[in-house]
């Protein structure tokens, strides 16, 4: 049994496919089947309602295992690769297996030793999980989609843990970087607004020229 914020779609045990994925999960509390009462330590809380976050649904498979469904790219529902989410309310020495079950890519660097990123509130620097704990395979239980499974052991109860496909680089961070370049008045850097995205975000046109200032298109 699981509880989810009212802004996210319901996810009951009868949902066996990824058609029910809506928005990102928001403080989604996973409770054991038949459990009533307030969440205890070890009842994981998932969240992806932040910039660059992506996690659309969580299904608990067993006490230690969770199937995670990622949302597709905007305007491209067949492309599902990126994930970025947090987990809190953990118990010390709690071991879990997370399965990202609806990848769309047939080939992935996860097959060649790449591993997801993790950080926590007390250890804010991104680190890669040990590759020996990461598996990428085609799963017949999930429409033969490719699945990436990784094992993890939580070690600090007060920490909030964050997991991501690779190093996140947000739109806001990128805009701050462009602002800093523009303020330097470099004679070889030109920034113009090309338009807006479907989400009303600014689309920049960047032109890098020779120091003499002559534009190269």
From TrEMBL:
Keyword set, alphabetical order: Carboxypeptidase, Hydrolase, Metalloprotease, Protease
- Reaction equations catalysed: (L-glutamyl)(n+1)-gamma-L-glutamyl-L-glutamyl-[protein] + H2O = (L-glutamyl)(n)-gamma-L-glutamyl-L-glutamyl-[protein] + L-glutamate
Q: Which InterPro entries match?
A: Cytosolic_carboxypeptidase, Pepdidase_M14_N, Peptidase_M14
Which terms in the GO cellular component ontology are assigned? cytosol
The record's subcellular location field reads: Cytoplasm, Cytosol
Please state the protein's primary subcellular location.
cytoplasm
What cofactor does this protein call for? Zn(2+)
GO MF terms listed in the record are: metallocarboxypeptidase activity; zinc ion binding
Instruction: List residues of the Peptidase M14 domain.
Output: 167-217
Q: Does the keyword Protease apply?
A: yes
For the biological process aspect of GO, one term held by this record is:
proteolysis
**Record family assignment:** Belongs to the peptidase M14 family.
What protein am I looking at? AGBL carboxypeptidase 4
- Which species expresses this protein natively? Prolemur simus (Greater bamboo lemur)
């Amino acid at each position: 049994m699981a509880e989810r914020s009212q802004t996210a779609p319901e996810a009951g045990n009868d949902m066996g496919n990824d058609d029910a994925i809506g928005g990102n999960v928001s403080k989604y509390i996973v409770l054991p089947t038949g459990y009533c009462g307030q969440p205890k330590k070890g009842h994981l809380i998932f969240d992806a309602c932040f910039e660059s976050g992506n996690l659309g649904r969580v299904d608990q498979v067993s006490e230690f295992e969770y199937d995670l469904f990622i949302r597709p790219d905007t305007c491209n529902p067949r492309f599902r690769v990126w994930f970025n989410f947090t987990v809190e309310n953990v118990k010390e020495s709690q071991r879990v297996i997370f399965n990202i079950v609806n990848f769309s890519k047939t080939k992935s660097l996860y097959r060649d030793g790449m591993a997801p990123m993790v950080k926590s509130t007390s250890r804010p620097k991104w680190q890669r999980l040990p590759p020996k704990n990461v598996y990428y395979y085609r799963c017949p239980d999930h429409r033969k989609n490719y699945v990436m499974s990784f094992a993890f052991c939580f070690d600090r109860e007060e920490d909030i843990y964050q997991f991501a496909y690779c190093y996140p680089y947000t739109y806001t961070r990128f805009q701050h970087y462009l602002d800093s370049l523009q303020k330097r008045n470099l004679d070889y850097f030109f920034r113009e607004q090309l338009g807006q995205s479907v989400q009303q975000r600014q689309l920049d046109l960047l032109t890098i020229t020779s120091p003499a200032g002559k534009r190269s298109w």
